[in-house]
Every structure is written in structure tokens, then in C-alpha cells.
Amino acid sequence: MSVEKHIRDIIGVKKSKMKPSAGKLLVSEPFMPDMYFKRTVILLIEHNEEGSIGVVLNKPTFLKIKDVVNSFPDVNHTVHSGGPVNINNIYFLHRLSDIISEGDKLVDDVYWGGNKEEIIDILQANYFDDDKMRIFMGYSGWTPGQLDFEIDNYSWIVTDLNTDLIFNTPAKELWSAVVEDMGHEYSYWKNLPINPQMN
Prior knowledge:
9 strands; alpha+beta; globular; 24% helix
């Protein structure tokens, strides 16, 4: 038995009560062994019989859009690592549906993508703040049934999206903030060590 599973059994980590769907958050369990996804919060973009797509919300990089895609303006806003798939592509999450058309609505006022020319105009005008738009390189992907399997095996808890929380919380604090927002049932997660073999 792994140390992670032993501690999980002792403290009574529960399976997710919610089912995954577009617009929901995935919160990694405290002892996620995968270093890339450890203590991450992922926004699900798609979840269907063809698989699942999401973006990690709390992995900022030191890159600019120009470093990833030459045709985009050189702006100072942070590019986040959305996941290990298609890392040479740029994706946008925003709350600017009044000025960006053709985006896919996820929940409330949160949209994924949109008209490329309008997005470039906004970037060139340096119009937005991080509480209105997030820029990602790459995304996270799961094959059909893979995410459901991982959820059943305690890797993720599915929870509702708190829009203001994810857009206004610093990346290094986001996992703990979302865990706290999930309620007292999960509040003890914040006090668990990242490495379960540490005491």
C-alpha cells in the first residue's frame, strides 16, 4: 500500500459527489503523485464521450504570447501553462463577451476562445486585466473514460466554478482558496503536507 493511499484511508478522503461537465472545476487531491498536476485547479472545457479537455488555472509561466506564437502581439500579460497538450498553441479564457464574439460560454460570464481578430485587437490595445482574460499555452486532455476513472480513483474532486475566485486569486493561493470554498468537509486538505512522507 502506498503512503498516499494509507493516509487517504486514515483521513477518510471521499470520492467526488459531482459529475464532471464543461464549466466545472477539477481540484487535485492533496497527494496527487503526478508532479505536473500536483495541487492544481483545472477548468473543464469539454467532457463527453470523445474525452475531456481542461486548462490548469494555477500554473503561470514567464513567457509572453510572442514567445509561443509569432503572429500575436508582444504584450506583458502572463501566459499560463494550461497543460501538456498542444503547448505551441495559445488559448483564451475571458469575461469579455460584450467585445469578443464567437466564444463558447462555459458558465455565467465565462467564455472560452472567440474571434481571433477581436482578441488580437484587445491584446494590441492592452485593454484587459487578469480578472477579465487569461492566456494559456496548451491544455490538459483525457481519452474517453479516462477522467471518470481518475475521479473514481480519488485523483480529482469536481466542484462548481466560483468565477470571481478563480479570476481574482493569485495562482499560488488558488488551490487552497478553492479547497476552502468547497466547505468544511475539505478544509483539512490545506494543512496536509505536499509530500505525505513529511511530518
